[in-house]
């Protein structure tokens, strides 16, 4: 049994990060489906493959990491540590002999060794594993589709804020307009992101 782990939403200033694990008994089945890094798939294709991956997987689980929890780790410069902790939970929740991980650490062997020590499983951590290992591609699809669903829910509650990424003008416009109207940031925002500092310079009182 082989499993893969990947995340979606590490970089956005709005919304949760989602980390997912998928385990299968034959990666060839995933390869035959045409799984790829979720970023290289259209939304419609991702949703289709999501259903197929869930059907084939012996285990498919995810965790949602809200903005407030992300901020607490970023303040301590421990975002990779946060991912480590969540990945340990996921690995322990699925039966797999080998776990492939898309490593957030530029030294993936170091990251993988720590996961092995914590879980007792064989872990192979790689950079860009979502583009190389089918079961990690499958996990990236699950994470991305789940996050997209969460973002859709937030938009129904807060209005259209675009992609939620700092480079999106709709996102920065939403943040500026929200603060102007409400005098504070909504709880869906990661307050430790540099985007917030740049956009709201001189408005530190709203970040406490």
From TrEMBL:
Cofactor(s) of this protein: Mg(2+); Mn(2+)
Primary localization class, coarse: cytoplasm
Gene3D superfamilies documented for this protein: Ribonuclease H-like superfamily/Ribonuclease H, Ribonuclease hii. Domain 2
Keyword Signal: no
GO cellular component, one term: cytoplasm
Function: Endonuclease that specifically degrades the RNA of RNA-DNA hybrids.
Family of the protein in this entry: Belongs to the RNase HII family.
PANTHER family per the UniProt record, alphabetical: RIBONUCLEASE, RIBONUCLEASE H2 SUBUNIT A
Protein name per UniProt: Ribonuclease HII
The species this protein was found in: Thermocladium modestius
Lineage, opening ranks: Archaea, Thermoproteota, Thermoprotei, Thermoproteales, Thermoproteaceae
